[in-house]
Amino acid sequence: MLKFAYKVKKKAKDKGDHRITKHGQVAEFSLREMSRNIDQVRKQVREMEANAKLQEALAENIRRANPELLSYMKKLSPKKRHALIMLSIQENKAKQFKDQEKMSKSILRTLVSEDKEVRNQLKL
Questions:
Q1: At 81, is the secondary structure helix, strand, or coil?
Q2: Cβ atoms within 10 A of the Cβ of 97, count?
Q3: Count of C-beta atoms within a 10 Å radius of residue 117
Q4: Domain span at residue 71?
């Protein structure tokens, strides 16, 4: 993570509303805004985890209901080919949600780390 210096630009009655400047990169924010961002990313992580699990469960249901699809694709009826397509879609969705979950977790780690650094530097 890059090193930044933080300064309180404008104090407020509630520390969570102090306006803070970030040096090394121009940015202005409050601890409350940062906390909201962290909460929002945490929520996104939970949603991605839940969606990935749902998609994995749907794919597993398709596999369990149609085990012959994996080895006999060329001999399948239109109905079975449709089930194989549905399986492929669910697996792809699960992968997409897992990728988004990883990205959200990375953003969350960065935000939490920066929040700690701001609080440490400013002794808030």
A1: helix
A2: 20
A3: 16
A4: 5-122
DSSP assignment of 1-57 equals ----EEEEEE--SSGGG-EEEEETTTEEEEHHHHHHHHHHHHHHHHHHHHHHHHHHH
Find how far residue 114's CA is from the centre of its chain.
17
Cα separation, 50 vs 59, whole angstroms = 14
CA 57 to mean position of chain CA atoms:
20
State the DSSP code for 73. G
Domain count, the chain: 1
pLDDT band at residue 1 using 50, 70 and 90 as cut-offs:
low
Mean pLDDT of 3-20: 89
Tokens of 65: 């209901």
Q: What's the CA gap between 52 and 3, in Å, rounded? A: 34
Helix (H, G, I), strand (E, B) or coil at 14: coil
pLDDT per residue as tens digits for the range 48-62:
999 999 999 998 998
